[in-house]
Specification:
It comes from Homo sapiens (Human). InterPro entries: eIF-2B_epsilon_N (IPR035543), eIF2B_epsilon (IPR051956), Nucleotide-diphossugar_trans (IPR029044). This is Eukaryotic translation initiation factor 2B subunit epsilon. By secondary structure, this protein is α/β, with parallel strands linked by helices. It folds into two domains: 120 residues, Spore Coat Polysaccharide Biosynthesis Protein SpsA, Chain A, CATH 3.90.550; 117 residues, no CATH class. It has six helices and twelve strands. The protein is globular. The N and C termini lie far apart (55 Å).
């Protein structure tokens, strides 16, 4: 029988070449420092990520969530009480050769904010593709598969901008899971879910929105105050002016045209 491949080599090899490449291994950046004194003086002698919940350190819950999500490599950045965190991780299952999630520990006394950590991530060229960004005290079992798919699709459509997908859960303002320090009001494009404005509400009685938000959108703008920030984000690997004020009050930066933030709700 004659082969289906002609002189141009349009046989099975061409079909395989046309197949879409699988996504690269998922990575995560875990910040094992809160850069605040919320749990002080308890956290004076023990870092917050090692505080026990049901006899399990908080950071172990976070790593369990990342592993269940499909993360294969996690960079743990430590500053305060870094030696204790490193000792805990080296003795845990996460640093065993059989671990599905390879944990790499990076310590420095120079980190003073999340911005310092992310600048170091960029300087060391640690991430090669989209990555999850979380703090070391996140406890979650949500399925973020849809959020990852939406993020990757958006990256294909918006090739010239950095993309960050923020994960929120719908929660009424009076719900007991809400924390006053984390309350936010968000303006979102009704069609694309693009975040147009993001503002923390602690200590504020009035909110100011740029008039341009409502003048420049033809599809409508939703102003949401019923969202709980899960502190889980999916980021593109390019250096980007992330809205660090979401993570740390001392860093006040604004959204730029080079960064597209989108909102993804989970149930």
């Amino acid at each position: 029988k004659r082969s289906g491949a002609g002189p141009g080599g349009s046989g099975g090899g061409g079909a395989r070449g046309a197949e879409e490449e699988p996504p690269p291994p998922l990575q995560a950046v875990l910040v094992a420092d809160s850069f605040d004194r919320r749990f002080f003086p308890i956290s004076k002698d023990q870092p917050r990520v090692l505080l026990p919940l049901a006899n399990v350190a908080l950071i172990d819950y976070t790593l369990e969530f990342l592993t269940a999500t499909g993360v294969q490599e996690t960079f743990v950045f430590c500053c305060w009480k870094a030696a204790q965190i490193k000792e805990h991780l080296l003795k845990s299952k996460w640093c065993r050769p059989t671990s599905l999630n390879v944990v790499r520990i990076i310590t420095s006394e120079l980190y003073r904010s999340l911005g310092d950590v992310l600048r170091d991530v960029d300087a060391k060229a640690l991430v090669r593709s989209d990555f999850l960004l979380v703090y070391g005290d996140v406890i979650s079992n949500i399925n973020i598969t849809r959020a990852l798919e939406e993020h990757r699709l958006r990256r294909k459509l918006e090739k010239n901008v950095s993309v960050m997908t923020m994960i929120f859960k719908e929660s009424s303002p009076s719900h007991p899971t809400r924390c006053h320090e984390d309350n936010v009001v968000v303006a979102v494009d009704s069609t694309t879910n693009r975040v147009l404005h993001f503002q923390k509400t602690q200590g504020l009685r009035r909110f100011a929105f740029p008039l341009s938000l409502f003048q420049g959108s033809s599809d409508g703008v939703e102003v949401r105050y019923d969202l709980l920030d899960c502190h889980i984000s999916i980021c593109s690997p390019q250096p980007t002016p992330l809205p660090f004020h979401r993570w740390h009050n001392s860093l006040q930066t604004t959204l730029t045209t080079k960064l597209e933030m989108t909102l993804c709700e989970v149930s």
